[in-house]
Amino acid sequence: MACNEALKVQAYFDGELDAAAALDVERHLGNCAECRTLLADLETTRIRIRAEAPYFRASGTLRASLAQSLDREDQGAVVMPMRARRKSFFAGAASGAAITCLAAGLAVFAILPRSDVLVDDVMDAHVRSLMSGHLIDVESSDHHTVKPWFAGHVDVSPAADDYAQQGYALTGGRVDFVDNHRTAVLVYRHGAHVINVFVWAAGMEALPSNATRKGYHVDCWHKADLAYCAVSDTSPEELGALVDLLKRG
Ligand SMILES: [Zn+2]
Q1: Structural domain boundaries of the chain?
Q2: What is the average per-residue pLDDT within 219-229?
Q3: Could you say which of 54, 129, 170, 202 would form a disulfide bridge with 162 (CB–CB 3.0 to 4.6 Å)?
Q4: Helices and strands, number each (H, E), in the chain
């Protein structure tokens, strides 16, 4: 029998919960093996879809017809609480409308460019680190502590320089998981803002620069054989100043 919290775990996975509800789910996950398995299955499915689904640009005709279908669905939609909406989705999964909706959703996912997926993943990881209280694994402003710590925990060991004098204090590091990469994360503070800098061994991926969504800014770059993405809710100019320091450092 499925655990009563399974729907909440699904909503947590989809990023639909506020910080307090997300914390409740994380607490529940600590005690419920069934929900941990569910979450792991969802993660595995997402990783496989991202790794194996081909990306393509939809034709203008396909995009127009998708937009029309979605408009029609919107006009018929009634606003319901999240729980009720999910139940009715599953209850109506066999109906033609739900299948149309699902197909449209999959098609919209498939036309997202690769770098957009990366921006989403980096932003999700940033927000997750602030919500879950898992911001720092090794707390130190000393690069002699942080850099060797990475060497023992992840396959990259980026320079971990403190820029407190320029207003960007290194507070520590952690290991996180972004876009199928185990990443080293340098954590900086700038005033009241946290800046996460994700670093992984670069492949041939195109990196987004200067993306802004929901008040968060992302700036990514390649340096030597490493890929970097800095994320924060600080202004793009202030984020850019740290990015310049890291590029030169
Ligand atoms: Zn459970």
Answers
A1: 6-110, 114-248
A2: 92
A3: 170
A4: 9, 7
pLDDT in tens, 117-159: 888 889 989 988 888 777 888 888 888 889 989 988 888 999 9
User: If DSSP codes are grouped into helix, strand and coil, which group holds residue 175?
Assistant: strand
26 C-alpha to ligand 1 centroid (Å): 10
Q: Looking at the predicted structure, is the pLDDT value of residue 109 above 60?
A: no
Provide the pLDDT for residue 79.
47
Q: How far is the CA of 6 from the centre of ligand 1 (A)?
A: 6
Distance from the alpha carbon of residue 103 to the mean position of ligand 1, in angstroms: 29
- Whether 86 has a pLDDT exceeding 50, the answer reads no
Rounded to whole angstroms, the maximal C-alpha distance in the chain is 61
137 Cα–ligand 1 center, Å? 27
- What is the Å distance from ligand 1's center to 88 Cα? 21
Q: Which letter, b or e, does each residue of 53-74 get, where b requires 16 or more Cβ atoms within 10 Å of its Cβ? A: eeeeeeeeeeeeebeebeeeee
Q: pLDDT value at position 87?
A: 46
User: How many other CB atoms are found less than 10 A from the CB of residue 167?
Assistant: 14
How many Å lie between the centroid of ligand 1 and the Cα of residue 228? Answer: 36
The pTM of the whole model exceeds 0.90 = no
Residue 90 Cα to ligand 1 midpoint, Å, equals 19
Average pLDDT of every residue of the chain: 80
CA of 195 to the centre of ligand 1 (A): 33
Q: How far is the CA of 4 from the centre of ligand 1 (A)?
A: 6
